[in-house]
Design brief:
Shape: globular
Family: Belongs to the class-II aminoacyl-tRNA synthetase family.
Structural class: alpha+beta
Distance between the termini: 63 Å
EC number: 6.1.1.7
CATH superfamily of the largest domain: Bira Bifunctional Protein, Domain 2
Number of helices: 17
Number of domains: 3
Helix content: 25-40%
InterPro entries: aa-tRNA-synth_II/BPL/LPL, Ala-tRNA-lgiase_IIc, Ala-tRNA-ligase_IIc_anticod-bd, Ala-tRNA-synth_IIc_core, Ala-tRNA-synth_IIc_N, Ala-tRNA_ligase, Thr/Ala-tRNA-synth_IIc_edit, tRNA_SAD
Keywords: Aminoacyl-tRNA synthetase, ATP-binding, Ligase, Nucleotide-binding, Protein biosynthesis, RNA-binding, tRNA-binding
Enzyme class: ligase
Length: about 625
């Protein structure tokens, strides 16, 4: 069964059970400044899990959501970990709960995918005294009634069977939602247990015998200001199952890189390098890393991100340089030759669900080619840096790893050639210090786990709509939004335009925005059918597909004066399909001021602006 068939079967299965198939959110959420990437299917749905009505009016949703998680980047290279993945999901927004969800998922696995029930194990939450959340006896009873033997139902605590985007309850920031979960594992009976991981094997053992293929999360709690958990007004189901892992289970092969989602890339790497994927551990690991990082890099670049040293651009640079480095280890030293071939394989794999990849293939190849050229210079600089050093140690090894992208294997080999030996533990300790700082920084970006809907961010979000329309009026209708990032301090707005704006153009844009603010325009929200919204003139600027029912925010209409002196109502100054939130009227914004205008890519400009008190 191909991955495309699995995806189709899943969406059809839940559509037949009255679920609305919603379009996936983009990997880079332009309207969410609090997180770098969409990391789970539920992330864009948080407002509706908290009780807000979904624009469709439906309480049952399903989709296939592209996601990116970087916490396991060092684990990529084994047979199951990836950075980019596709998450099949279904949600109940206060509708059905455990009694429906668990039987449905088992039915999908056994009847739709044909998995043998005897190879399935499940885990259930064992309760937590600290938070007072009880043992999940209901899920335990349901699984037994469905024919899962009691010895294959395993209880785990908060570290394994509690889900929130920030981890176990003690790590959840105030406002974050989560709850106990029940996971399903597929057992690869031919994989022998490795006792170095645990004395006896169990579903969460890392020996490779078990693979988690789906997780039903029962989101019913929210973290409060006193660090306790309160029950939400509605009980939700949030299910996620990795497409890559489901494909591995249906083929009864524990190596996800031998599924049709990766195999075309692996085969191409074999042809280009003259090596066999399984010929030795280093070749296998290298090909897995190249295949994973290539997919992830393409998906990030598809959403308009360019390599840089900040935020999403830094992640793209890190992933692309790691794949280039491991390509060199596979004797692939000419990126301009091999990258276009590899990119073609990814595009063909996803031409059904991500058709926009096809049109961007050439542009993305050019981005990778430029980055490869820069990286070649960085590698050369790193080697020169090593030549200056009298001795290599763990701290220096990590400096070379972080600054120049040299992996441990490469550094240790260079040390060996110099007749030196580096303590791997020292290198690991330095890396752990860095990862701890990175986790703190990530939590800072996360800002409580919810989309930042503070008043300051809401004001700046509204201001971006005014700025967008002002740019279109001052420049031309082709001044299209290419991305935005908003913090509580400033807005950053990227737009298509071929040349640097003149001081006169910038002043006209700034003045036009402030004119709308001074008019005290009312901001209104309506929910409409997509076709109706577009026909009425609402603009839809983002790359993602839209659902059938959308939110439309209108700023205005302004009051116009006729030649007779009589007032009449005019069209809105700005009207866009948008998820919100916005202020009630423009008088709340204060004074708009542009602080910088610059280029970010060919044909793309960036404006940074602030709102000041009047």
């Amino acid at each position: 069964m191909t991955s495309k068939e699995i995806r189709r079967k899943y969406l059809t299965f839940f559509k037949e059970r009255d679920h609305l198939v919603i379009p996936p959110s983009p990997l880079v959420l332009a309207e969410d400044p609090t997180t770098l990437f969409t990391s789970s299917g539920m992330q864009p749905l948080v407002p509706y899990l908290l009780g807000e009505a979904h624009p469709s009016g439906k309480k049952r949703l399903t989709d296939s959501q592209p996601s990116l998680r970087l916490g396991d980047i060092e684990e990529v290279g084994d047979n199951r970990h990836t950075t980019f993945f596709e998450m099949l999901g279904n949600w109940s927004l206060g509708d059905y709960f455990k009694a429906e969800q668990l039987p449905w998922f088992l039915e999908f696995l056994t009847k739709e995918l044909g998995l043998v029930k005897e190879k399935l194990w499940v885990s259930v939450f064992k309760g937590d005294k600290t938070t007072g959340v009880p043992r999940d006896e209901e899920s335990f009873t349901i699984w037994k009634s469905l024919g899962i033997p009691e010895e294959k139902i395993v209880f785990y605590g908060v570290k394994k069977n509690w889900w929130s985007r920030s981890g176990e309850p003690t790590l959840m920031p105030v406002g974050e939602i989560g709850g106990p979960d029940s996971e399903v594992f597929y057992e690869f009976a031919d994989v022998p247990h490795d006792p170095k991981f645990s004395e006896t094997c169990h579903p969460n053992c890392d020996c490779g015998r078990f693979l988690e293929i789906g997780n039903s999360v029962f989101i019913q709690y929210q973290k409060t200001t006193d660090n306790s958990l309160k029950e939400l007004s509605q009980k939700n189901v949030d299910f996620g199952g990795g497409l890559e892992r489901l494909a591995a289970a249906t083929s009864d092969n524990p190596d996800i890189f031998q599924t049709d989602l990766f195999l075309p890339i692996i085969k191409r790497l074999e042809n280009l390098s003259g090596r066999n994927y399984l010929q030795d551990p280093e070749t296998t690991r290298g090909m897995r890393i190249v295949a994973d990082h290539l997919r992830a890099s393409l998906m990030i670049a598809k959403d308009g991100v360019l390599p840089s040293n900040k935020t999403q651009g830094y992640v793209l640079r890190r992933l692309s340089r790691r794949l280039l480095l491991f390509s060199r280890n596979l004797s692939l030293s000419s990126p301009e030759v091999f990258l276009p071939d590899l990119i073609k394989e990814v595009v063909k794999t996803y031409d059904d669900i991500f058709p926009d990849l096809v049109g961007k293939e050439r542009a993305i190849s050019e981005i990778f080619s430029e980055e490869a050229s820069r990286f070649a210079k960085t590698l050369e600089a790193g080697l020169k840096e090593i030549e200056k050093l009298e001795k290599l140690d763990g701290k220096i090894a990590f400096y070379l790893y972080e600054s120049f992208g040299f992996p441990w294997d490469m550094i240790s080999e260079i040390a060996r050639e110099r007749g030196e030996e580096i303590n791997f533990q020292d290198f690991e300790e330095e890396k752990e210090k860095h990862q701890a700082l990175s986790r703190e920084a990530a939590q800072g970006l996360f800002k409580g786990g919810l989309v930042d809907q503070s008043y300051e961010v809401t004001k700046l979000h509204t201001a971006t709509h005014l700025l967008h329309q002002a740019l279109r009026q001052v420049l031309n209708e082709q001044a299209r939004q290419e991305g935005s990032n908003i913090t509580a301090e400033r807005l950053r707005f990227d737009f298509s335009h071929p040349a640097k704006l003149t001081p006169e153009e910038l002043k006209r844009v700034e003045d036009l925005v402030n004119e709308q603010i001074a008019k005290n325009l009312i901001v209104t929200e309506t929910v409409q059918n997509l076709s109706t919204a577009l026909a009425s003139g609402a603009r839809a600027f983002f790359r993602e597909k839209y659902p059938e029912r959308v939110k439309v925010y209108s700023i205005g209409p302004a009051t116009l004066r006729q030649s007779s002196g009589q007032a009449r109502s005019g069209p809105p100054f700005s009207q866009e399909i948008c998820g919100g939130p916005h202020v009630a009227s423009t008088k709340e914004l204060g004074r708009f001021r542009i602080i910088k205008e610059e280029a970010v890519a060919q044909g793309v400009r960036r404006i940074k602006a602030v709102l000041e008190k009047v």
